[in-house]
Amino acid sequence: MGMGRFISFEGTEGVGKTTAIEGLCHRLTSQGIQVVRTREPGGSELAERVRELFLNPDNHIDANTEILLMFAARADHLHQTILPALKLGHWVVCDRFFDSTVAYQGFGRYKGDRSALAKIESLIEQFVPVVPDVTLWLDLDIATGMQRAGKRAAADRLEANDLAFFERVYQGLAYQQQKYPERIYRIDASGSADEVATRIDAALGL
Question: Which residues does the UniProt record annotate as the domain Thymidylate kinase-like (predicted)?
Answer without folding.
Answer: 9-200
